[in-house]
Amino acid sequence: MLINEFLLLGAVLFCIGIYGVIARKNAVMVLMAIELILNAVNLNLLAFALRNGSPDGHVFALYVIAVAAAEVGVGLGLVLLIYRNKRTIALDELSEMKG
Amino acid sequence: MLAETLVAQNISFGIIATVMVVGAIRVVTSKNVVHAALWLVCVLAGAAAQYLLVYAEFVAITQILVYVGAVMVLFLFGVMLTRARIGNENDLNNKNWALGIPVALTMFAAMAIASTAVRIDTQAVSDAIFKPYLLPFWALSFVLLVAVIGAIVLARKD
C-alpha cells in the first residue's frame, strides 16, 4: 500500500542529506546530514519489511540505529578533538591531507 | 485490511511526510546550528511516526529513545563545545555548495525511477543474512563498546 510512497520519501530525505554533506562547512552540520541519510535508509528497510511481511527489515533497521549512534559518538569525539587542536571545525580549512 | 484504515494511513503519511521534508530542507539550509539541530528532531520524530504507520512499533520506540533522546543531546553538546557563538551565521556553507544541488537532483531522479519500478527479491537476501542474526547482534555490541571507549579516549583531556 504505502510502499512506493515510503521509498520516494526515503529518496527525498537521502538526497537532501547528500546535499547537506556536500554543501555544509561546519563538521557538526555534516554529521546531522549523515543522520538524515541513515534515516532514509531505515524508511526503505521498513517499507520492504512491510511488503515481505517479515521481521528481518525491522532487525536490520535496529542495527542501523545502533551503528548510527556509535557513529555519532565517535564522530563528535573526533570533531571535539579537531576543534581542540585547530580551533576550527570548518571543513575547508582542514586541508592538511591535500597533496 | 479495512478501507478506512488505508485512507487514514495515506492521509497521515502525507501530513507527516510533508513535515519531514520541510524539516529536512531546513536542516541543510538553516543559518543557525542550534535551529538545524531542532529541525532534525522534527525529522527524526516524524520518521518514528512513519514507522508506527507500517506496524514497526519497536523500531519507532527505539528511534525515539536513541535518536531524539540520546543522539540529539550529543549533537547539542557538540554544538555547545565547538562553537563560540550561538546565533545566525552567514558562512555555514562552503565554497562549492552549489555543486550539491545538481548532485542531489540527479540522485533523486535515479532513485525515483528505481523505486517506482522496484522488483527486488529481498526475501532471499534477508533470509540468507538474518537466519542466524544472533551473531551480528553480538558484533554490534562490540561495535558499541569500541565506540564508547573510542569516544572517551578521543574526547578526554590529557
UniProtKB/TrEMBL annotation, chain A:
Alphabetically, the GO molecular function entries are: oxidoreductase activity, acting on NAD(P)H
Q: Which residue ranges traverse the bilayer?
A: 6-22, 29-48, 60-83
> Can the keyword Transmembrane helix be found in this entry's annotation?
yes
Q: Which GO terms describe its cellular component?
A: NADH dehydrogenase complex
Look up keyword tRNA processing and say if it applies: no
UniProt membrane topology term: Multi-pass membrane protein
The compartments listed are: Membrane
Query: What does the record list as coiled-coil region(s)?
Result: none
Which keywords does this chain's UniProt record carry? Membrane, Transmembrane, Transmembrane helix, Transport
- Tell me one GO biological process term: ATP synthesis coupled electron transport
Q: Spell out the family assignment given in the record's similarity comment.
A: Belongs to the complex I subunit 4L family.
Q: What is this protein called?
A: Unannotated protein
Species of provenance: freshwater metagenome
Source species taxonomy: unclassified sequences, metagenomes, ecological metagenomes
